[in-house]
Design goal:
- With 180 residues, the protein is α+β, with helices and mostly antiparallel strands.
- The protein folds into two domains: 5-128, Ribosomal protein L10, N-terminal RNA-binding domain (Alpha-Beta Plaits, 2-Layer Sandwich); 129-180.
- The protein has helices spanning 5-21, 35-47, 57-64, 90-101, 119-126, 131-179; strands at 24-29, 50-54, 80-85, 106-112, 115-118.
- A five-stranded antiparallel beta sheet has the order 2-3-1-4-5, with helices on both faces.
- Helix 1 (5-21) packs across helix 3 and helix 4 packs across helix 5 (119-126).
- The longest helix has 49 residues, at 131-179.
- It is elongated, with a radius of gyration of 29 Å.
- The termini are far apart.
């Protein structure tokens, strides 16, 4: 079913708006995939905040013209599914992870920060941990020296208080019979 000129303009406008908000574009060939698999991929993409859409390649080229994703225009050939994400790794991760479990989905190319990525580049981008994981790791690294310092200070305080604490109960025991 072909689109009329107004519908095509609407699609280009929608995709261009999404591209303007996104950091990453991932392209994958979906030839031979079943509807169930495509629906599962779309569901996963929605959960991860990835805009996933099957587009005509000419409309996609027009939509990304003038953006940082224009570098991937040459790779827009064949039946492709386009994944845009505001998170730097989400689109690449969703498509690459799904491709691992489904041999019909083939990662073709992508774009990040105005640079074209080949299939291996998209997979490498997908292997980077998510923003939340990186923040947790950074926080752990920042807390680790503080926690070590607190443990050392607690050990020193315990060591210093140790002999005094042992002598206090003995002194209290001697004072108790004298009072009786």
């Amino acid at each position: 079913m072909s689109l009329n000129r107004n519908e095509k303009q609407t699609v280009v406008t929608d995709v261009a708006a999404q591209a303007a908000r996104s950091q990453t574009l991932a392209l994958a060939e979906y030839r031979g995939m079943t509807v169930e698999h495509l629906n599962a991929l779309r569901k996963t993409a929605r959960e991860k905040g990835v805009y996933l859409h099957v587009l005509k390649n000419t409309l996609a080229r027009r939509a990304v013209a003038g953006t940082g994703f224009e570098v991937a225009s040459a790779a827009m050939v064949g039946p492709l599914i386009y994944g845009f994400s505001e998170d730097a790794v989400a689109a690449a991760k969703v498509i690459s992870d799904f491709a691992k479990g489904n041999d019909k989905l083939i990662v073709k190319a992508g774009a990040y920060a105005g640079k074209k990525l080949d299939a291996e580049g998209v997979k490498a981008l997908a292997s980077i941990p998510s923003k939340e994981v990186l923040l947790a790791q950074l926080l752990g690294l920042m807390q680790s020296p503080v926690a070590r310092m607190a443990r050392v200070l607690a050990a020193i305080a315990e060591k210093r208080a140790g002999p005094a604490a042992e002598e206090a109960p003995a002194g209290a025991a001697e004072a108790a019979p004298a009072a009786a």
